[in-house]
Amino acid sequence: MKPALASFFLLTPVLLLGCSHGSQPALQPPPTTQAQVVKSAQQQLPQAIRTTGTVHAKETATISAQMPGTIRQVLVQAGDRVRAGQLLATLDDAAMRSAVGRATAAQMAVEKQQMAAQANAALAAGTLARYQELKNEKSVSPQEFDEVQKRSEAAALQLQALEAQSNEAKAAVAGARTQLGYMQLRAPFSGIVTARMADPGTLATPGTPLLEVDRDGPLQVYTSVDESLIGSVRVGMKVPVNIDGVGTGEAMGTVAQIVPAADPTSRSFLVKLDLPASKQLRAGMYATANFPGAVRAMILAPQSAVVMRGSLTWVYALDPDGIAQLRYITLGNRHGDQVEVLSGLAAGETLVDHPGDRDLAGKRIEAQP
What we know:
- By secondary structure, the protein is of the alpha+beta class.
- The chain is built from 3 helices and 23 strands.
- It has helices at residues 2-23, 94-136, 142-181, and strands at residues 32-35, 37-39, 41-57, 60-64, 69-74, 81-82, 87-91, 184-186, 191-196, 203-204, 209-215, 219-226, 238-243, 250-258, 268-274, 286-302, 307-309, 312-318, 324-328, 330-335, 338-343, 350-352, 364-367.
- Helix 2 (94-136) packs antiparallel against helix 3.
- Mean pLDDT is 86; it is low at 1-22.
């Protein structure tokens, strides 16, 4: 029994070893696919200081009532185009029309008194002239002449007083008509209605906004620049601007104005950038501006090699054997068709260009010419 048992234990490792070699699968080579490749690179570029802002019209008018009154009509809606002088809204003008009527009647009454005074003054002047001849002929007493002279002077003074009253009455009529004109709200220039804040039946009070109108023409981006950077910003500087709602890529804005006073809360300055004319731009759109900062070394990768899905961003980087590795990266600012890579990638790495929706991780990449 003992020799047989010993033989069994000697044969067991050999059998197990043979079974182990027989069950190990053969290694399969990774699948191969063709794709265009690009490289990341390190460059010395100005650091872009990104600020956010909003697109505005160069001129915006807030339409409000100058006299209190009930809104009778609002003739436009937000989005309507209007021309200069176009009627936008009307207020109840019954009281103003009555005031114009009263002022006009008062003016007519004064004018009639003025006509009577003119006739009286002319008669008094003629009588004085005749008495002057009689006085020269010593045919009238000095007292009689003095009485006629005083009546003539009084008639002239009364005429002057009525002329002043006539001017005052005319001014009252003009003022009443001006106030009547305030009951009609008109467009100050040609443009587009951007907001309507009131409807018929609402009581309009002076200073309360009723409508907003943006003037036609090129638009601007209003953005805030920190006080530590404002020294490098100057009027006429070209600044890249991105407007997501347009989707036409990067536009070049021009610094048109730097408001000299800083916001005491944020310690920033308002900067206005002129934008090139575009039919796609609308006031109120969100914009980002990239002001140039200090020059520094940064790693850039072609934007076409970057895959973005929700909050995740990655590239397919090739290892020394040409195998694609999915590499998550953190992006910085764009520079033309290149994008700064803050982490996850080194300079000189080979990347798959235009990967699209393909899953290339673990595949061998054959570079296309």
